[in-house]
Amino acid sequence: MKMKQVMALAATLTMAFSITACGSSSKNAEEPTSSNTNTETTAPAADNKDQTTSTDELKPEDGASLVVWESKEERAFTDEIAKQFTEKYNVPVKVEEVAAPDQVTKLTQDGPSGLAADVVMFPHDNLGKAVEAGLLLPNDVFGEETKKNNTEASVQGVTIDGTLYGYPRAAETYALFYNKSLVPDAPKTFDEVYDISKKLVDKSKKKYGIMWEVGNMYFNYPFVATGGGYIFGDNGTNKDDIGVNNEGALTGFKTYVKLKDVLPVKSGDINPDIKRGLFTTGDVAMDITGPWELANYKTALGDKLGLAPIPSMDGKPAISFSGIKAFYVNSFTKYPDAAQLYANFASSKDAQLLLNTKVGSIPTNLEALQTDQIKNDPYLSAFAEQTKNSQPMPTIPQIGNMWDPMGAALAEIWDNNKDPKATLDNAAKQIQDLNNGAGK
C-alpha cells in the first residue's frame, strides 16, 4: 500500500501541476459549484452485532470514519444511505457537497495531503484523468460482484485498460421534460419545438417555450453528433481525430443557431437553478435535462409533467451524451477497507432503488432494472428510449481538454453571433493543442 501511495503521489503532483498550468477543468453533466455544506452521521453506541461476522469478508478498520463527497442534487440519497451504512457497520460518515464534475480536480489537489474524501462520485468521463494521476484504488475486493450485478455498459464505463475502478450506481443521459398544460403533446422534431416556442416566448415576462444550458457542451452534444460529428474518433479513443467541426457537426449547428430566435437569453444567464425555477413555475414549457431533476419536477408539476426523447433533427434521432455515475475509493484514504465497504454498500440493488426514489436516477444494477419500480415508470422509460440513441462520453484523459474550448465556442456562437464554422475550427485547434501539451 505504501509503495502504491508513493507512486500515486508522484503522479498526482504531476497532474496537479498540469491542471494549474492549463487552468482548465471538466464542466460537463452538472451543475452547481461546490459548497461547504456537510452533515455527519454519528456512529451509535458500540454494538458490533450488525457488523460482518465472516472472517472471509471485509471489515472496517478499528476507529474508522469516512468522508463522502456528493453533489447538491443527490444529497437526499447520500444522507440516507450514509445513515444506513453507519447503522450497519458502526462507522461515522460525513457528507460534503462537491459538484460531481469538480471532484477529480479537487481530489487531485487535496488527495495527497489527506484532505480529500475517502469515497468520491463522478461521471465516467473523468475516470481516465483520475487513473492517470494515481488517485483511485481498483475495485478488486468486490470486482466480481460488481461485474455480475451491473450492466455491461456500466462496467465498461468504469474500467480503464482492463482494470475495474468504479462501483456503478446510475446510468444517465438527458431528455425533454415538458409541461402538459402548455405543451399537450411532446414535439417530435426541433422544427416543432421552434414553432411551439415562437408562440410562447415573451422575454419581458421571462416566459419561454424551450430552455436548456446552451453554453454547456454536455447538453449540446446532439447538435454535434446527430449529423455525424464527434469529440474523438475511434469510439472516443483517438485524441488526434477531432470531429467537433466536421460537416455533420456544422449541419447540426444550423438548428442550434435557429433556436436562438426563441430563446433570447445569454448563455451565461442560463444555469440549473434559474432554469429549474422557471420550469417549476410554468414560465418555461420545455427543458432538456437529466434524471436528477425528475423528483423536483414531479413534485412541482404532478401529472402535468411529461417526458420524451430529445426531438429529432433533419429526420435523424437526436444523439445525446450518456454517462455512468459511480463511486470510487481515494487511493490516499486512511481507511481503505471501510471505504470499499461503503462504495459497495451504496451501489447495491437496494441503494440504487433508493437513489431512484430520491432523485429519479436510472439504475445499473440488473435486478433493480427488473423491478416494478423501474419497469412501470413512464418517465424512466423515456430516458431508456433516449439511451438507445446515446453515445458514452470518452474516458481518455484528453476529454478534459474539450470542455472549456467548446464551452467558449458555444458562448461565441450563441451570444455574439459568430460564424459556427470558424468558431468550431478554432475550438478544434485549441483541443488539439491541449492534447499535444501546448502551454503546459
UniProtKB/TrEMBL annotation:
Gene Ontology terms: biological process: maltodextrin transmembrane transport; maltose transport
Annotated protein name in UniProt: Maltodextrin-binding protein
Naturally occurring in which organism (per UniProt): Paenibacillus dendrobii
Similarity section: Belongs to the bacterial solute-binding protein 1 family.
CDD domains, A to Z: PBP2_Maltose_binding_like
Keyword entries, A-Z: Cell membrane, Lipoprotein, Membrane, Signal, Sugar transport, Transport
Major location (coarse): membrane
Biased composition (Low complexity): 31-46
InterPro entries named in the record: Maltose/Cyclodextrin-bd, SBP
PROSITE patterns, alphabetized: PROKAR_LIPOPROTEIN (PS51257)
Region forming the signal peptide: 1-23
Gene Ontology molecular function terms on file: carbohydrate transmembrane transporter activity; maltose binding
Record localization: Cell membrane
Membrane topology qualifier: Lipid-anchor
A GO CC term attached to the entry: ATP-binding cassette (ABC) transporter complex, substrate-binding subunit-containing
Stretches for region Disordered: 24-65
